[in-house]
Design a protein that fits this description.
The termini are far apart. This protein is about 30% helix and about 30% strand. The chain is built from eleven helices and 15 strands. α6 (about 210-220) packs across α7.
């Protein structure tokens, strides 16, 4: 019996990193992707829930830091234990995706792989699943597919994709060649991008045949490709652990965008509008979560006087505020953060300062 196309579809979820912009709730030992931020389910659990209707659980793989693997396994009992891949240390998305690809290739050399992030929010998951099916269909034609998010504001915190010529039309879904990947713009440039109608936010969500991906690794990242192949040859053997540790320590940092996508001539984009957000800061959560009559988002106990459009996170004790507007207040057992909403991206700097001061217990 011939294989159905869905039989060869797999998903790799990237679940590393520590989410420093969501400090002090997100820490090195409890990163944001393993926390319940939007609902009672963690971000990782929501990501898996979102794709289970189109993929069996044993076709879902997760790459995470070695120190997070046990937590990821506990949160995902439906995913086979061996599908939770331990990355020895972070070297960027190109090695990370390559490592996940090796494990999927061992299972199915003909696999089409979706690459997703564990810290994204999708307001319309059914529409998202339809797009993923379309992306997989295009990937089977030999393209590297990236999903471009229709921008609804001149966002300066995201990279952008500029579309090129139309490649094909899948019903109402256009597929364009990618003309350029563009770095995070200033506000004036972001305004111009949005007004043009041909620029999209770079979601970092991809689809490709593994055979296509390996061809591009070999072409544009030959050293990394060679290192990955060395690891791939010993997967599932007694030499896997020692070989992975030895090779991984020599791998250079590289992102999939810079290392592969910006160089390849086989990249296309599917513009989508599915209510996507990268949950990268407290300001994002303030925009996503439902507010009260004063547009405040409150987690825990809060008494506010003349307080509007603010986020109050205090699960352990009462927080009282007077005269606040557009302010983030996050209170944990050992640290308190107060900052303007429009400077929430700078929270990462606090974590870097704590590291330099060797105050590791707060990191």
């Amino acid at each position: 019996m011939p294989r159905r196309k869905t039989d060869s579809l797999y998903a790799l979820i990237l679940a590393g990193g520590t989410g420093t912009r969501l400090w002090p709730h997100s820490r090195r030992n409890r990163p944001k992707q393993l926390l319940p931020l939007i609902s009672k389910r963690t971000m990782l659990q929501e990501t898996v829930d979102r794709i289970l209707p189109i993929l069996p659980a044993d076709h879902i793989f997760v790459v995470t830091n070695a120190s997070f693997a046990a937590m990821a396994r506990a949160q995902l009992p439906m995913v086979p234990r061996q599908n939770i891949i331990r990355e020895p240390e972070g070297h960027g998305t190109a090695p990370c995706i390559g490592l996940g690809g090796l494990h999927i290739q061992k299972r199915d050399p003909d696999a089409v792989m979706l690459s997703l992030h564990a810290d994204h929010f999708i307001a319309r998951p059914a529409d998202f699943r339809r797009v993923l099916r379309d992306a997989a269909r295009v990937a089977r034609e030999g393209y590297l597919v990236t999903l471009g998010i229709q921008p609804n504001q001149p966002e300066t915190g995201y990279g952008y994709i500029q579309r090129g010529e139309l490649v094909e039309q899948l019903g109402a879904q256009p597929v364009y060649r990618v003309a350029h990947f563009l770095e995070k713009p200033d506000e004036a440039t972001a305004l111009r991008f949005v007004a043009s109608g041909e620029h999209y936010w770079n979601s970092g969500i991809f689809a490709w045949k593994l055979t296509t991906l390996w061809e591009e690794y070999a072409r544009y990242q030959p050293k990394l490709f060679e290192q990955l192949q060395t690891i791939g040859k010993v997967l599932g053997t007694r030499r896997e652990k020692t070989t992975l540790a030895r090779v991984w320590g020599k791998i250079k940092n590289e992102t999939i965008d810079v290392g592969i996508m910006e160089k390849s001539a086989r990249v296309v984009t599917l513009p989508i509008d599915v209510g996507w957000s990268d949950v990268g800061s407290w300001a994002t959560l303030l925009d996503l979560l439902p507010g009260d009559h004063a547009r405040n988002v409150v987690v825990g106990a809060h008494l506010g006087v003349d307080t509007t459009s603010s986020l109050i996170y205090s699960p352990h004790r009462l927080i009282a505020t007077i005269g606040l507007k557009d302010v983030v207040v996050v209170d944990t057992e050992d640290a308190l953060l107060v900052c303007p909403k429009d400077r929430a991206q700078e929270v990462k700097q606090i974590v870097e300062t704590l590291k330099r001061a060797r105050k590791q217990k707060y990191v």
